[in-house]
Amino acid sequence: MENYEILWNNALDVLRNTASSIAFSTYISKITPVDLEGRKLVLNVPTELFAREIANRLLDKILQALKTAETGVTSVKITVGDSDKDYLHKDDEVEPLLESSMEINPRYTFDSFVVGSSNKFLYSAAKAVAEDPGKNYNPLFIYGGTGLGKTHIMHAIANYVKKENPTANVLYATCEKFTTDLITIIRQGKGSASGAQEFRNRYRNVDVLIIDDVQFLANKEATQEEFFHTFNELYSQEKQIILSADCHPSQIATLSERLKTRFEGGLMAQVVSPDIETKIAIIQRKAEERKYIINTEVATYLAENSSDDVRSLEGLLNKVIFASLLHESPITISLAMEAIKQAVSSENKEVMTTTNIINIVCNFYDISKNDLLGKKRNKELVEPRQICMYLMTELLSIPLMTIGQAMGGRDHTTVIHARDKVAELIQTNSRIATEVNDLKNLILKK
Ligand code: ADP
Ligand code: MG
């Protein structure tokens, strides 16, 4: 079977659940995968009518399925006819320009957000906005250091609005995503009306627009210009706009005065480092979510020894939970102290190297080292690859960059993505949870 056939089959497994059975049998089952061009999957359909129907009605679902199945495919091209040379003329090519939009994390809710004095104001403002989007504070501008819950609270607003009003069009994007989408459109050249239209549809045809990390507008004049127009259009229609940055707007380099004025014209909500009580509450809450119990003594110890952001707090918790698994012992204060001092005991560290973990993962999944470290993106390889990176971040105290290098020269952001992805899968997918646990045992017993 060709690689693109495997990718398509994986997407079909998803589509069987996400598309209606009529759409599936009438259209989707008539699609044949014929090629893979970079990250673009080429699909062939019998007639032009089919191509149009699919383009108009099913393309989003297909792209989403390719994403859910982790095929790595980011766009599709639809061709018509029996021969794979018989592609539609470029102008007729049915191909969305923009990559799919970003997802909202269902776990980031108001319920899972621990409220303390450091974020009480932010919490109430966010809640007010979520309850009545466009009416209370527009825009809501959230700012403060990294790892303090800005992204979490923004997703919470999105989840809340969507739950209360399922038809509301809520768009979450990072400022980088906004920029990438804009650049994609600009590359098409000024003549491309459809590209501009696609961009507008995405960013202006919304009820709630959430843009994360707008500090990335710094030194990007063209993006600022487009952002200004998007902002004005939504604002004048009383659509809710929510923005975040790691600093006050006045500290974003070259941010135009008019954008600064807009940003500061709504409600500014600052989030600061949590105090010790909030830290303790967050640790206990996060542990609970993972079905562990951390007593107040241990939680206090962790809180006192953490740096000031919540993300690092979660890192400490991970270390302690892992130590408890490793020593098969309950989470006591002495275990916590030991765990924080050293993520892994030195005798285990000696044998625990990246090579070691790679070998064990390859054996476990019965795949070759070349495949594990290579670039192929079928699910059979992507999953072990991500799990391998996750295990390295958990078990080895080495920089993410080093892990990326060991994993066939990948970027550290890829390692971060894999780590977060697997951490989430462990909670939702019991097969993965078991496999990861078995692997950990294998690695540690060596
Ligand atoms: P930021 O966007 O400000 O950099 P994030 O929203 O990504 O920070 O938060 C980092 C991590 O800390 C996330 O896992 C988030 O769930 C968690 N977190 C931050 N603040 C809180 C809070 N008040 N309650 C629970 N979890 C929090
Ligand atoms: Mg963030």
Structure description:
This protein is of the alpha/beta class and 446 residues long. It has 20 helices and 8 strands. It has helices at residues 3-18, 21-26, 48-68, 120-131, 150-164, 175-187, 193-204, 221-236, 257-264, 276-289, 296-304, 310-326, 333-341, 346-351, 354-365, 369-373, 379-395, 400-406, 412-428, 430-445; strands at 32-37, 40-45, 75-80, 140-143, 170-174, 208-212, 240-245, 267-270. It has a 5-stranded parallel beta sheet with strand order 5-6-7-4-8, with helices on both faces. A 3-stranded mixed beta sheet has the order 1-2-3. The longest helix is centred in the N-terminal third of the chain and has 21 residues, at 48-68. The radius of gyration is 24 Å and the shape is globular. It starts with a helix and ends with a helix. Mean pLDDT is 87; it is low at 85-94 and 343-350. Residues 150-151, 212 line the site of magnesium ion. Adenosine-5'-diphosphate is lined by residues 108, 112-114, 119, 146-152, 282, 310-311, 314.
Radius of gyration: 24 Å
Mean pLDDT: 87
Helix and strand composition category: alpha/beta
Order of helices and strands: HHEEHEHEHEHHEHEHEHHHHHHHHHHH
**Low-pLDDT segments:** 85-94, 343-350
**Number of continuous helical runs:** 20
Head-to-tail CA distance between termini: 37 Å
Strand content of the residues, in percent?
Answer: 5-15%
Helix content percent band: 55-70%
Task: Catalogue the ligands.
Answer: adenosine-5'-diphosphate, magnesium ion
Shape field? globular
Spatial strand order of the main sheet: 5-6-7-4-8
The number of distinct β-strands equals 8
- Biggest sheet layout: 5 strands, parallel
